[in-house]
Amino acid sequence: MLTEFIDLKAQYAALREPIGRRMQAVLDHGQFIMGPEVAELEKCLTDFTGAKHCITCASGTEALLMALMALDIKPGDEVITPSFTFIATAEVIVLLGAKPVLVDVDAATCNLDPNKLEAAITAKTRAIMPVSLYGQVADMDEINSIAEKHGLPVIEDAAQSFGATYRGKKSNNLSTIGCTSFFPSKPLGCYGDGGAIFVSDDKLAKAMREIRVHGQERRYYHTRIGLGGRMDTLQCAVVLAKLERFEWEVERRAKVGARYSRLLAEYAPAIHLLEVKPDRTSVYAQYTIRVKNRDEVQKRLKASGVPTAVHYPIPIHRQPAYTTYGNHALPVSELVAGEVLSLPMYPDMTEATQDAIVAAVKDAVLTRA
Questions:
Q1: What is the value of pTM for the model shown?
Q2: Where are the domains of the chain?
Q3: Which residues contact 212 (CB under 8 A, 6 or more apart)?
Q4: Across residues 123-139, what is the average pLDDT?
Q5: How buried is residue 331: exposed, middle or buried, by Cβ count under 10 Å (0-12/13-18/19+)?
Q6: Tell me: the pLDDT tens digits for 194-215?
């Protein structure tokens, strides 16, 4: 193999000492659930994002679920979200008995198209959940403006964009609630499942802290329906260690992503690059291009030793379990789902490795069958 798709081994080699030290401290004090590292991490993350509150939780999926629960989303309610996203975004809506109202995305970014948003709002709409896909924040000012007009909360699904900025502010602190994931492959990841919720509303923060521990206001006194949604102390320790070089990693991701774009731009239109808008940054959770003959390109890249992935091959409105929630055509979602291809992306990538990947991509895309 020419390279890893995401090289977590190189990252661990650079952080071996702080990760070992942090994890050993947890093993020594033995507070594996809600130990001191949980509160420490939450403080570090609020400092980083600028949000007033951070509630760590068991995964990015739980973060979204807890956010909806705190907003009291009920059966019969509607939540608007893009169809082109990971299944968890719609899954949590359905788990609460609500209806995901699936809208199309902007072809330039693959994020929710705000021009399609207002037409999807009905008397049953209770929230809007845009996704910051591939590491770039969605058009949050436009989305927030429409939401405010209709009195709706906005949940940013920022599972892929922790560390990105939008008009000078950090992802996860751009709307009513921000939710992120610390899945190992994410820009800031742990060594298992983990996530966090960001909010500046005290009442919502209190609700989500209670939901996280089975709806408890105090021990064995349950004020609301909840779940077991805690992020364990060992995973918090890993993220604390990774924060030590996270700013460097964000800078490196931006440089690697920008260099990919410069090197690949000359092969347009055979290779279609996604746009990073000038008023925001991307942390490139994935570096994703669009190509017409994706299956053949992917096969050729595999033969060249370049691993790839498709995020995501089937939009939610075409998934068998979700067709009852509206199987109408969403042409942009369907177009990009058939063309997107993610290339290896990680902060420790060398220019030599990247040059070899780009050469392989060029050959794979431009070679005629």
A1: 0.97
A2: 8-103+110-244, 246-366
A3: 55, 57, 66, 226, 227, 229, 230
A4: 98
A5: exposed
A6: 999 999 999 999 999 999 999 9
pLDDT of 71-112, one tens digit each? Answer: 999 999 999 999 999 999 999 999 999 999 999 999 999 999
Q: How many CB atoms lie within 10 A of CB 321?
A: 11
What's the CATH class of domain 8-103+110-244? Answer: alpha beta
pLDDT bucket at 369, cuts 50 / 70 / 90: low
Segment 167-195 shows an average pLDDT of 98
* 318, pLDDT greater than 60: yes
Is there a contact between 235 and 192 (Cβ–Cβ < 8 Å)? yes
* Percent of the chain's residues with pLDDT above 70: 99
Are the CB atoms for 130 and 81 separated by under 8 Å? yes
Burial of residue 165 (number of CB atoms within 10 Å: 0-12, 13-18, 19+): middle
Quote the DSSP letter at residue 44: H
Alpha helices in 153-245 (DSSP H): 202-212, 233-242
Classify domain 246-366 by CATH number.
3.90.1150.10
Which residues, at least 6 apart from 218, have a Cβ–Cβ distance to it below 8 Å? none
| pLDDT computed for residue 326 by the predictor | 73
Residues in the chain: 369
Do the Cβ atoms of 342 and 273 come closer than 8 Å? no
Can you tell me the distance from the alpha carbon of 266 to that of 270, in angstroms, rounded to the nearest whole number?
9
| Residue 340 CA, distance from chain mean position | 17
Hey, what amino acid is at 118?
A: E
- What strands lie across the sheet with 78-82, from one edge to the other? 99-103, 78-82, 125-128
